[in-house]
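RECORD TYPE: protein structure
NAME: 5'-deoxynucleotidase
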Amino acid sequence: MPLLERWALMHCFQEENVSEHCHQVAVIAHLLTVIRNKRFNGNLNPERAATLALYHEVSETKLQDINTNTKYHNPEFTKAFKTLENLAEKECLATLPEDLRDEMESLIVQSKVDPEYKAIVKAADLLQAYVKTKNELRFNNDEFCHVEEHLTSKLKALETSMPEVKCFMDIFLDSCTTTLDKLSET
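PREDICTED:
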């Protein structure tokens, strides 16, 4: 996963690999779950959410990072890519010793992930991409302007069903998109 480049079709001021992405998504998924539990009567395990986030891109070890616009271009493409991802996840699972597979299946094979946790990880995935986008725009990388528009609308839609997303943005977004010097001042 450290060898798989994200955003490969775009110029980036800060390069990112799939391993770094999954780590950041795990941190955000953990925080989203804590916020949900503390402020919105949730009852999910933050550690489970973080662990699922660490494995959420395992199919990319076989398929590489697929551009979102390509993957969701039309329903037939999406269905085909989801089928490929499922096959890749099952192949990855099959590489494990047999006695470990039952424990790992619900982490690696996304169709086996509980829908509530899957929603948290998806929201964290979008938030991580949004943070990445905001940072690229901070460096005046206008290649990310259309990405910001797309992610802003997706996150706005999520705020209704997942108020923890808005809380995360209100609490953490500024500190995720500033300089170390500015963070040290506070």
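COMMENT: The chain has one domain: 18-175.
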